[in-house]
Amino acid sequence: MEQKKSEPVDLAKLRSIWDEIEAGCGGPDSVAARFRKVKLMTNGPITDERLSSVWALDRCVGLDLSETQITDASAPFLLSLPKLERPDISKTNITPVGVAELQSSRPELHVFHESIPK
């Protein structure tokens, strides 16, 4: 299978499409839109500094940040996401201390990280 060259993502256009889909589903709190999982689309690495600039994270239920460059410094930002239920922070630079901070601050989170026994 031939792999296509990745082109830059137009985030403004993507956001417009996403907002139209949400509106058609009954809004961001509807059941259809509530169970989405977001895999960030970017040409560069996701770092602590870039994480907060990604749109619509405040409405995410599941967030796949695996294999990104985020660290424990991103824990407060993740805790600020009101609808977040299932963050995947496996294979990141978040330490067991950062994981413990997430779990103790929001015990309802189902955190995926290699330091948590399966």
Main attributes of the structure:
8% strand; three-stranded parallel beta sheet; 118 residues; mainly alpha; Leucine-rich repeat, LRR (right-handed beta-alpha superhelix)
Please give the CATH class. Alpha Beta
The number of E-state strands comes to 3
Q: Write the CATH homologous superfamily.
A: Ribonuclease Inhibitor
Q: In whole angstroms, how far apart are the ends?
A: 34 Å
- CATH architecture verdict: Alpha-Beta Horseshoe
Q: Report the C-alpha radius of gyration, rounded.
A: 15 Å
Q: What is the number of independent domains? A: 1
How many strands, which pairing sense, and closed or not: the largest β-sheet? 3 strands, parallel
User: How many DSSP helices?
Assistant: 5
Strand order of the largest sheet: 1-2-3
Tell me the overall shape: globular
CATH fold call: Leucine-rich repeat, LRR (right-handed beta-alpha superhelix)
Low-confidence stretches are 31-37
Overall structural class, as computed from helix and strand content, comes to: mainly alpha
Mean pLDDT figure: 77
The helical percent reads 25-40%
